[in-house]
Amino acid sequence: MNIFFKELKANYKSLLIWSCAQVFIIFAGMMKYKGFADSGVDINSLFAGFPKELLVVFGMGSTDISQVAGFYSVFFLYFMLLAAVHAVMFGAVVVSKEERDHSADFLFSRPVKRHEVITPKLLAGVVNILFFNLVTFGASVFFIGLYNNGDGLVDKVAITMVALFVLQLFFLALGAMLGASLKTTKIATSAAAGIILGTFFLSVAVDLNANFDILKYLTPFKYFNAKMLVIDGTLSLNSVGILLVVTFILTTLCYLIFNKRDLST
């Protein structure tokens, strides 16, 4: 339990920074919507003249962004990216940092098994991503309500946050597995960043070319559709199930690999 609270204390400053960045994205997005709404410009017609490739990269696609729900759904892409980077980096660092900080010989020489060290670290990670998720939820409801006649779309935002939390769990487990597998924290975080960028660009490629549709199962960024979540208020249970199963597999691999790892001190 001491390890759990130690990790929470060690990471609360970075968590606050990540959370503030998320709040700023939501605030800036809703301010941009207010600017378009007050100008009387037909937003859909305005963006219709932009290249399809540019619209896909910015998550606009065919969504009706003249409505606050449609405009907000565009930002789900950025929520995913920020949440993914935060979760995967936390997982990669929290598992491997004892070797980086040269404290592994002190920690693991005590009468404690390795899984008893990893478990509270991962639980601290779950608390971190949950806090990040709740901040995203609260900021979303507040700013949407501010510019939507008091209607914060609570039910639809809540469904969106469930999808986001499942993605966060996946990336936390991925980061932890990389942290347990790779030699140093630097290599683990670099690999995590590379996977996020690779899977993100793969999701863009799938949107741009129908021939790549089969590859959508290889990128977690395609498991949830912002339009279905925010506008239709529906959540794909198949996607939830697949990601949770993969998360369990990655977490199991993290324990197995770390238990056999030759720790450097």
TrEMBL record:
This is ABC transporter. Keywords: Membrane, Transmembrane, Transmembrane helix. The keyword Ribosomal protein does not apply. GO terms for cellular component: plasma membrane. GO terms for molecular function: ABC-type transporter activity. The chain crosses the membrane at residues 12-31, 70-95, 122-145, 157-180, 187-206, 235-258. It holds the Pfam family ABC2_membrane_2. PANTHER family: ABC TRANSPORTER PERMEASE, HYPOTHETICAL MEMBRANE PROTEIN, CONSERVED. The keyword Protein transport does not apply.
